Amino acid sequence: METNNHLIQEVFDQIVKFRPSLARFAPVEEDDFEDEFDIRVLGDQIIKSYPWPIGVEVRRLLSASCREIDRQRLDQIFKTAERTMQFFGFVLLIQLYEESQSNPCEISDAYRSQFKKRMSVLSLGNFVWLIGETYKILKNNERELFVDEFDEVAKKDFFERLYSWVQLRNEISHYQVNMPPEEIEKKCIQCEELLIYLLSDLAFLAKYRLVSIRQIQVLKLRNSDPTYLHVINLLNNSDSDFKGKSIEENVHTDSNSVILTKNLKDLRRFLKLSPLVIDTHSETINSRDKFHLRKDVFLYSKFRNDHMMYVGTETTEKCDLRALSNYHNLLSEFKEIASFLG
Fold it and tell me: Which helix (H) or strand (E) covers residue 33, if one does?
């Protein structure tokens, strides 16, 4: 467990700044930490605090299978960083698209050209580009970020460290399959420090809630305005058994969507991350062509031959999601976004 202690303590210290209530899990006295405190308690809170696509990768990194400083741990460090960048890049991308619907942003031809190339098959390098260039456009157009805490982060060394991930990935790829053990150990230490910075810089995501809208019911009484009962799954959890709850609002979100919101008590300000992030837990397996579907949270990964492909957060095998009941709606939305930006 000592392998993870530094990462857990550093990241938790940043998360608690945005969720002060989590301070109750930390040791009160320094002696508590040394004698009886189980730091895995803080690790569990980190996993729960981040949106699930990030949290599940942190969970894997903190698991017993990744305690040794070896290639498996190094690969999981990169996987955690890559998924974190992917999710955050999608947040910025969706805001750029949504902002441009009501008040068009000035988007350069260079961005559109690169967007078209890079969004067809996503990779770590493309996520780095997506975050850097999309943020630049939003700020050049003087738009207030939905995740406004990032402005302070961006003023520091965030992008310098972000771009270094690509260099490190290239250095590791140079070794092809075999890396000397001493080189693996060096890279593990180097990359873990970078991951601590990345997770700490984006610790403000703990303030937000990733929500799957399973169902929306209209509630209407005579001589009154309608309200909308949202049946949701909260996709911030330490396991995949996401707990459902209901929220009543006087406005509605979009059905069968995944949204990011700061406040579960007020769903009026949100970013709809679908079709880039989707949740299949509410899908009913009611026909043979759906037997292969998995109930999971998926992130868009590539577009080929008029087919959107996704990667699962818990599902490791490749899944063809074209049998989803709302797949054609997702495809239509994706094409709209891709056409507009690329």
Answer: helix 30-35
